[in-house]
Each structure stands twice: as C-alpha cells, then as structure tokens.
C-alpha cells in the first residue's frame, strides 16, 4: 500500500488481500522485465470474410510466457500494464511487431509467387492491434503508428486499431480528434467489444470507424438465447445504417457462423475458424485460405 501513490490507486487496492497486492507488484516488476527482454509474443487470430469464406485479416493478441509461472493471460496482465503505465511501451511494441509481421508475410507471399507452386492470391489482409484507453491518454498514438508503418514500409490501411467504448469516457472530443488524425494516416479503425460499454449513439455516428466488433458475450450463445440474438440483429442494422462493416467475435460453431452470414454480418472471428495462432501457423492459415480457393 505504501507504493500506491495516488488516492485513486489506494481505492483500487484497499479491498485486495496482502497476497493479491504482492502478486500484483511482482507481476508489474516481471512485466517491466518481460517487455525489455522480449518475453512477450503476439499471436494472431484469423478474422474471416463470411461471404467468401476467406481470411480478411488477423487480430494480434499479446501472450506472456513467464519463465517461472508459465502462461499468463492478457486478461490478467493488461490491467496491470494499464495501471502501471507499462501499456505504453507494450502497446508500441505490439504495433511495431504487427506492422513488421505484415511486411514479413508480404515478402514471403511475393517470394512464393515467383515459384511454380499454386499462387497465393492477392492478399490484402489486415492485422489489428488493440489500443488501450490509457495509451490514448498517455502516449503520442499517431507518432507511434507512423513510426511502425514507416519502419515496416506498409500502407496504413493494412494496420487496424481496435479501441473500446471506454476510450471515449474521459475525453470524447480528444479521442474523436485522434481518430480523425489516424484516418488521415489511412489507418483502419474498429470499435471493439461493442455493446458492453458506454454507448452514445450520437457520438458513434460521428466516428470514422470502419468496423463494429460485436462482443462475444452476445454472439457465442445467440443460438439458445433469443434476447442475445435480437441484440446482435440490432447492432447489425445499426452498423448498416451508419455504413460500418461488422465483425462478430466468439463464433464457436458453424451454425452461428452461417446464421451471422445470413444476417449480413461482414466478418467472423472465433474458435470455430481458429484460435489465436503463433506467427508461422497464422501465415500457413493465410496461405491455405488463398491457395485452396484456386485448386
Ligand atoms: P479482445 O480484444 O476482445 O480479444 C478477443 C478475445 O477473445 C481474445 O482473448 C481471444 O482469444 C478471445 N476469443 C476469440 N474467439 C473466441 C471464441 O470463440 N471463444 C472464446 N471463449 N474466446 C474467444 P485473449 O487473447 O485472452 O485477450 C483478452 C483481451 O486482452 C483482449 O480482448 C484485449 O482486450 C486484451 N489484449 C490482448 N492483447 C492485447 C494487447 O496487445 N494490447 C491491449 N491493449 N490489449 C490486449
Ligand atoms: Mg480486440
Ligand atoms: Mg474484442
Ligand atoms: Mg472482448
């Protein structure tokens, strides 16, 4: 508790047991080291174009393999990164890594297509990176994005940033300005976990968002739950009216995938298609998706 500097932090910790507090501090210390030593990895979960059945892109998801504790879920370490400010270097690392991966896969595809094997089709896939509300408050996001796409030599539209409704709570006007600046760099934008947060429809209408991602809490069991089904349909009509594309996250069965396709949802993501994959497996998944189409 002594280390809690602000009143706000004290409030956050004071219900925790001493053990929980100790654990949090050790996660924070270890995470700082993990970022420096590059113990973090990005995994890539395919996002499918529901109409064509092809890969449209991937979501980059951070993974931490701790030397003693093994796998630590982002659900546990991202909040610690946000509270400690470590989300700034972590977020920059993720953006840079994702842009480099696009450049790497593009060159592998170009190299492959010079040979005689069946060609990998024109793959204008995107990679999305999660952007935390704290990064928006504490970092120069436009600068970070420009550094990443320039170093990798990729066009801005190949990189998508996913932000949640919480990014609009503290400074809605500032966030809107940021999105417009990102758009002028040609960056693709998605609203993540849509439907779970603070939704101001008047604000949503003004946002230069390309894709609304429907939160998986509505999608996964929309087959058994009529109300969730109605929420999904409503979000799909809203997106259509606002001229935005849609991604349903958490598709675990082919039935749900088919239903969403019929309802006009643009993209789908979930264990039914693939779990988040290591970089080389994700590249295989991408190549197969395009080659199998030609054979
Ligand atoms: P998210 O951005 O909403 O990412 C989707 C999460 O849903 C991922 O969890 C993914 O593995 C999971 N998922 C995808 N399909 C299914 C499915 O069919 N069923 C189920 N049960 N789950 C599915 P993950 O990788 O554990 O990440 C959790 C959250 O951590 C992410 O939610 C995101 O908010 C955050 N996160 C992960 N990596 C980063 C990062 O690099 N930066 C930031 N700021 N946040 C990150
Ligand atoms: Mg996301
Ligand atoms: Mg999400
Ligand atoms: Mg989510």
TrEMBL record:
Sequence ranges assigned to domain EAL in this UniProt record: 24-290
Protein name (record): Bifunctional diguanylate cyclase/phosphodiesterase
Native organism: Sphingorhabdus lutea
Lineage summary: Bacteria, Pseudomonadati, Pseudomonadota, Alphaproteobacteria, Sphingomonadales
Full-length numbering of the shown residues: 320 to 614 of 614
